[in-house]
Amino acid sequence: MRYIIIIFISLLPLVSVAQLTAPGMNALRYASYPSTPGSNDPVFIFCNSTGNQKGSLQAVSPGGVGPFSFVWSKWSDDTKSFSISIKSDLSSLSSSCTGLDEGGYRVRITNGNGYDKSLTGWIFLDNPYALAKLQNFTCDYVALSGKAAIDTFFYKDPADGNFIKLRNAVGFNWSSTPSSTIPYPDLEINPVTFTPPLENVTYKLAVVDSFKCSSESSFPYTSIHVKADFSVDPEKGEAPLKVRFTNKSIRGDYIKWEFGDDSISTVTDSITHIYYRPGEYSIKLTAESKLHCIDSMRFDKVVVDPSDLNIPNVFTPNGDGINDYFNLDSKSLRSISVEIFSKSGIMVYRFYGDKARLDGWKGWDGNVNSSSIKATPGVYYYIIRAKGWDDKIYDGTEYRGFLYLYR
User: For the stretch 255-275, what's the b/e string if a residue is b when 16 or more beta carbons lie within 10 angstroms of its beta carbon?
Assistant: First the structure.
């Protein structure tokens, strides 16, 4: 019980002090008067984005013996005092004033038992200013132009009527919908982007001040910019290598393909190109719009494998799907000649192919001269000649040897 009494007594000062508040305010600051450094009258800020905002004040009696009388007045620059009468509420415990313009207000609270207290507060209606517009644009950049401004507020020293500036600062931020690149959007009020949007956007400038009051301005921007883009499939392989170039350019009304092998195409859609000679190729795509905006993209690199030839010495044509053909481990060969002989010197298989015929060649299936007669297991002799797309010749003793057939 003793602790409850102590708590109650400690709360008495809180409920016995008259209060001045501002319902609906957005920020609260405190006045600092040079003439009376100890005074800290509240400064109430209302955000006024619509231009129709008004202030409101509410005074609450200190409790105790009532009723109380509330007499409201407003600051006058002519008399340098709170001499403009506003309203009076008699025999009440609280009083409110609404629809208030900017300025200083004072309420005097009294009762019939000697209580007499005056409360002072200042009201400001804050409306930052934002203006966003297009400064300039070309094929390569977009320049934005912005303005950001804030209201300057002054309250008065009640002792002498001198003006005292209320601190306020401005901040801003550029953005766009959909999102696009804007360099230093909260540092440059007139930013320039050299990564212009490739789709139509709405640019917006948001301005906010120290009191968290804000304003926005926006405008639509229709993109004219060009982006050259394409994909490559495959990027590597043996000759002849068929590569599909898929055009993904934006506003590429006119297209120029440079394939890196001295060939050029102006096909606007996707295109397939064949590389015959082994090597590395750099591909360039140039895209141009009807407004003559140009962009290009280079792809490094498409790799066509050099020719190569390796010859196995064993195969097992038993129909199990594993090593059923005598074929060559090769890359980028232009032509192949294969001759296979039995131990007695009888030719059992012969193949010559180039280009499309070579692409469809599976190898020797172990049948005699492509008949239904199966070659007997044993040792066979092969002679192989080939030519690569890089003009390398495969001929000689290293391409003559023995082959073992197992079933």
Answer: bbbbbbbeeeeeeeeebebeb
